[in-house]
Amino acid sequence: MPRASWRGHLRLSLVSCPIYLMPAAVRTRPLRLHQVWQAAPAEEQQRDRPTRGNGQHLPDLPAAASADETEEDRAEPVGPATRITLRPHDPSTGEEVEKHQVVKGYEYERGHYVTFTPEELKSLDLESSKVIDLERFIPRGDLDPVYFNSPYYLYPDGQMAAEAIGVIGSAMAEASVVGLGRLTLSRREHMVMVDPRGTGMVVMTLRAADEVRAPAFTAADGAIDPEMVAIARAIITQRTGKLDPGSFRDRYQEALRGLIDAKIKGLPITPRPVSEPAPVIDLMAALKRSLAQERPAPEAGGAAKKRTKATPDRRQASLLLPVAGGGRGGRKKKEPAPVAAPQRKKA
């Protein structure tokens, strides 16, 4: 189990209990491409040329060309790659700087810095460095996910703390609210959302207001066609299923791993074709074609049941769309008007 990343107290009014936080997300180690230096073939040839006693290179002598040298598109050998290192240095002299000589500083004018000692930075600690005070509570769905930053698991530190966390968490769950407080991590104070989870809680650090851009969405031109909305809703229904976090993966990293393996084995590299979708000219026709080719989402706990030839096509029910018009409350029940699926053109 990883070490606690923060220890302190959770406080609700006069009730406080010791807690500790553990990162809820595991930072996976992606495949890193390093900066390396590799001598060019011309440089290697220049370096390997024989020299006179004074260090000058001898002129190239004509020689009979071998069969291998006359081949076209012959791959020239390159030198081994060597990883480069970046070290702190004085930009004016190029002299390397020792680590213990590096301090924190702020550039208040061009080329002028004010520096700080560790003790001076320690004096800035706030109460939120040790206490998460639940200042207010809001309905669970009122917080926009764009403010979410990093998640942590909150664990009670001791038996008495477990009882207090259980009481506060149960009360929050019954009220369907989340708590808001403040937490200082790595010299930065964050607003945090505290959400009960069984015998513990989840703490989500939130971005500050000046870190979130205001949306610049434009108003839609004209009214939205309700028939198009109904078709889009039918497509969404066909693709609705249970959440499977196991399907969340980084396909770029997987492709990079395959490229690395192919390079190590000396296999030929074939670029993957990346298709771009064609622009939609007729939105209604595109929606109907999409609905006609949709398949139901797999059922929970296993793959979708295969249809036999005698089983009617269940997609046809999705093609029966309600007739536009009428309010929700006083709408009379009518037989839905069938919308014929567009016939595909024969190639």
What is the gyration radius calculated from CA atoms?
Answer: 33 Å
Can you identify the CATH class of the domain at 6-23 and 126-210?
Answer: Mainly Beta
State mean pLDDT (0 to 100 scale): 77
Largest sheet: 8 strands, mixed
Shape estimate: extended
Please specify the SSE layout and strand pairing:
Layout: E1 6-12, E2 15-23, E3 36-37, H1 41-48, E4 82-83, E5 104-109, E6 112-116, H2 118-122, E7 131-133, E8 136-139, E9 148-156, H3 159-175, E10 177-185, E11 188-197, E12 200-206, H4 226-238, H5 251-265, H6 283-293, H7 315-318, E13 320-321, E14 337-338
Parallel strand pairs: 1-7
Antiparallel strand pairs: 1-2, 2-9, 3-4, 5-6, 8-10, 9-12, 10-11, 11-12, 13-14
Helix pairs in contact: 4-6
Structural features, described:
There is one protein chain. This protein is α+β, with helices and mostly antiparallel strands. The protein has a domain at 6-23 and 126-210: Ku70, Chain: A, Domain 2, CATH 2.40.290.10. It is 21% helix and 22% strand. The protein is built from seven helices and 14 strands. It has helices at residues 41-48, 118-122, 159-175, 226-238, 251-265, 283-293, 315-318; strands at residues 6-12, 15-23, 36-37, 82-83, 104-109, 112-116, 131-133, 136-139, 148-156, 177-185, 188-197, 200-206, 320-321, 337-338. Strands 7-1-2-9-12-11-10-8 form an eight-stranded mixed beta sheet, covered by helices on one side. A two-stranded antiparallel ribbon has the order 3-4. Strand 5 (104-109) and strand 6 (112-116) form a beta hairpin. The chain is extended. The model is unreliable at 61-75 and 301-342 (pLDDT under 50).
